[in-house]
Design goal:
Rossmann fold, 10 helices, binds adenosine-5'-diphosphate, about 240 residues, binds magnesium ion
Length: about 240
């Protein structure tokens, strides 16, 4: 872990988030030169999160109580694990996954990126990989000069993985089915926290994703169902 100099909260859209979570900027920028200090890990994570969070969601805050409860549990588990192992830093290694379901525009992706931003400011270490399911399939398609198995392991082994819009394609192919199964099965068996969003309604899940994936998702995930109108269409929708 490298030492990260004090950061400008405006650059990372942190003002509201720090206030909402009662985190003091002086703590975040405390200059103790210890790379393993929670404040340094938070600064490091904030810069890393900013690299993966799309511009549109740069200031997202996860205000959903169930998403908050999931975060609290993950963080508590990381801290218990740290105490148990006498480790210098708390890190997310294992935990429950979260499945955010609901129609288009109800705020699923917003909550997912808000959760990543929030984890970053806590000083608990995590490395995350974020992708839409469609981008992941495109990145994994066998093609000349690309070792898709190495690429697959990057998703498979991420300490936190966000898969946005799983099950969106109307016609699953053998290829997407195999990727879904191998990925979900690995993360299920190793209890790696995975954040999944999907437009599917619960009864469509096994239709689109198959029984083997669905059964694992049911066991590994806390489910949050979003309702309401498409926020992108405004009040009139
Ligand atoms: N809690 C929120 N506060 C402010 N804007 C939000 C909130 N939730 C969603 N939005 C905005 O509403 C739109 C739809 O949200 P998004 O998360 O992209 O929906 P979904 O992923 O469910 O399709 C986006 O423009 C997003 O920035
Ligand atoms: Mg979305």
């Amino acid at each position: 872990m490298q030492w990260i100099p004090p950061i400008n909260p405006k650059r990372y859209h942190l003002d509201e988030l720090l206030t909402a979570r009662g985190i003091n900027l002086d703590w975040l920028n405390s200059n103790d030169l210890d790379p393993h200090s929670p404040a340094n890990i938070a600064r490091y994570s904030i810069t890393k999160a900013a690299e993966v969070i799309p511009f549109h969601y740069r200031s997202a805050i996860a205000d959903n109580p169930e998403v908050q409860a999931w975060l609290t549990e993950l963080i508590a588990q990381a801290c218990d694990d740290q105490a148990g192992r006498g480790a210098p830093t708390a890190a997310i290694t294992h935990g429950r996954s979260l499945l955010l379901l609901g129609p288009t525009g109800t705020g699923k992706t917003h909550q997912a990126y808000g959760a990543i931003r929030e984890l970053a400011i806590t000083g608990v270490a995590a490395t995350w990989v974020v992708t839409t399911a469609a981008d992941m399939y495109a990145a994994l398609r066998p093609r000349h000069g690309v070792d898709s198995e190495t690429e697959f392991r990057r998703y498979r082994n991420a300490s936190i993985l966000l898969i946005d819009d799983l099950g969106a394609e109307r016609k699953p192919t053998e290829f997407t089915e195999e990727v879904n199964f191998r990925l979900i099965n690995w993360r299920y068996e190793h209890q790696l926290p995975t954040l999944i969003t999907s437009n599917l309604v619960p009864k469509q899940i096994s239709e689109r994703l198959g029984d083997r994936v669905t059964s694992r998702l049911i066991e590994m995930c806390q489910r949050v169902v979003f309702k309401g109108a498409d926020r992108r269409r405004g009040e009139a929708a």
